[in-house]
């Protein structure tokens, strides 16, 4: 019902605009043709006979020639049909002038010229009005085309945004199983050994699962929360590696309101443990998180055996895709291999708005 009312309201508004325009043209004719004459009755009656041909000619250009030929850049056909139209319309304009003079003759006042314009000027006045209609038609159609183009562009951008969100969700879904697979392997090892530390591992894992299931669906989380869950993950790995792990964790984050995409840094740490190699029986990992000049700087370095190639896990691959979708080109991700170390460096712009 509301949709029909909107349509009727729009049609009524268009009708009012057209009526106001042609009433304005009517008064223009009376002023133009009778300027200096006091015989207003004759002028009004004569103008009445000019209006039908003027309106018909104007709408012919407005609804047919302009949208179907001029606006679609069929300039030759537009020019050709315009010439035909002016030739045919010239006959009807002269005929309208003739009938106007004949049927308005009884209204003429003796010794007073009812019209102050000759026939050529009357014809010029009609074509001048048609020219105004042509210009308005071009401007209106151009405006409608611009609105339509803008609407299509907005729909396209909206579709791209929805696709981007779906791709991002898909990448997150891939990261979750990968992360859980690594963590559950740790828990499985303790369960086989019937270790007394198994309950502590389960408790820490439950905290990570809560982060994954509930926080990761948010567009951003506090950097402190991400760091806290990195520490929980490191605690799990410390239990698994025991004395065979040498880890350094440095952070410099004085701003407590910095936001980051969830599960953005943790997979780097995860891959350092998964793909890192023990050198002389010790796995060495160094992690640094700091903020500088409105950027978050993150580095993760792990030991590797000389001449051993680095395997790229699904986590790092998906993180790189997420970075491109989240920050486009406004980020730096460097992965370097040295003789005994593998290092990942990430630089992203920081956001200190409140999390959603």
From TrEMBL:
Gene3D superfamilies from the UniProt entry: Histidine kinase-like ATPase, C-terminal domain
Coiled-coil annotated residue ranges, if any: 140-174
Gene Ontology cellular component list: membrane
Domain of life according to the entry: Bacteria
Domain Signal transduction histidine kinase internal region as annotated: residue spans: 167-245
Source organism (scientific name): Tenacibaculum skagerrakense
InterPro entries, sorted: Bact_2-comp_sensor_kinase, HATPase_C_sf, Sig_transdc_His_kin_internal
An annotated Gene Ontology molecular function: phosphorelay sensor kinase activity
Keywords: Coiled coil, Membrane, Transmembrane, Transmembrane helix
Residues spanning the membrane: 12-34, 46-66, 78-99, 119-140
PANTHER family: SENSOR HISTIDINE KINASE YPDA (PTHR34220:SF7)
One protein family per Pfam: His_kinase
Protein name according to UniProt: Signal transduction histidine kinase internal region domain-containing protein
């Amino acid at each position: 019902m509301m949709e029909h009312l909107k349509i009727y309201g729009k049609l009524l508004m268009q009708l009012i605009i057209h009526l106001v325009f042609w009433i304005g043209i009517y008064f223009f004719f009376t002023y133009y043709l009778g300027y200096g004459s006091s015989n207003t009755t004759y002028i009004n009656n004569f103008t009445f006979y000019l209006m039908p041909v003027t309106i018909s000619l104007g709408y012919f250009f407005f609804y047919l020639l302009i949208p179907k030929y001029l606006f679609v850049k069929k300039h030759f056909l537009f020019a050709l049909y315009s010439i035909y139209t002016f030739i045919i319309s010239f006959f009807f304009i002269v005929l309208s002038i003739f009938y106007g003079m004949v049927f308005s003759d009884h209204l003429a006042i003796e010794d007073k010229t009812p019209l102050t314009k000759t026939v050529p000027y009357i014809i010029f006045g009609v074509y001048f009005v048609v020219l105004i209609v042509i210009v308005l038609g071009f401007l209106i159609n151009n405006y409608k085309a611009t609105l339509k183009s803008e609407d299509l562009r907005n729909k396209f951008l909206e579709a791209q945004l929805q696709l981007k969100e779906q791709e991002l969700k898909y990448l997150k879904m891939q990261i979750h199983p990968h992360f859980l697979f690594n963590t559950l392997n740790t828990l499985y090892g303790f369960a086989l050994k019937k270790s007394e530390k198994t309950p502590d591992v389960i408790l820490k894992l439950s905290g990570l699962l809560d982060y994954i299931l509930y926080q990761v669906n948010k567009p951003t989380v506090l950097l402190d929360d991400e760091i806290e869950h990195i520490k929980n993950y490191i605690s799990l790995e410390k239990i698994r590696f025991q004395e065979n792990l040498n880890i350094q964790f440095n952070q410099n984050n004085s701003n407590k309101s910095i936001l980051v995409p969830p599960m953005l840094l943790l997979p780097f740490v995860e891959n350092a443990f998964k793909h890192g190699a023990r050198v002389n029986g010790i796995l060495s990992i160094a992690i640094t998180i700091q903020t500088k000049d409105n950027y978050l700087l993150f580095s993760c370095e792990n030991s590797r055996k000389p001449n051993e190639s680095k395997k790229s896990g699904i986590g790092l691959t998906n993180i790189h895709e997420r970075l491109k979708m989240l920050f486009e080109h406004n980020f730096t991700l460097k992965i370097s291999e040295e003789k005994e170390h593998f290092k990942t460096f990430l630089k992203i712009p920081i956001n200190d708005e409140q999390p959603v």
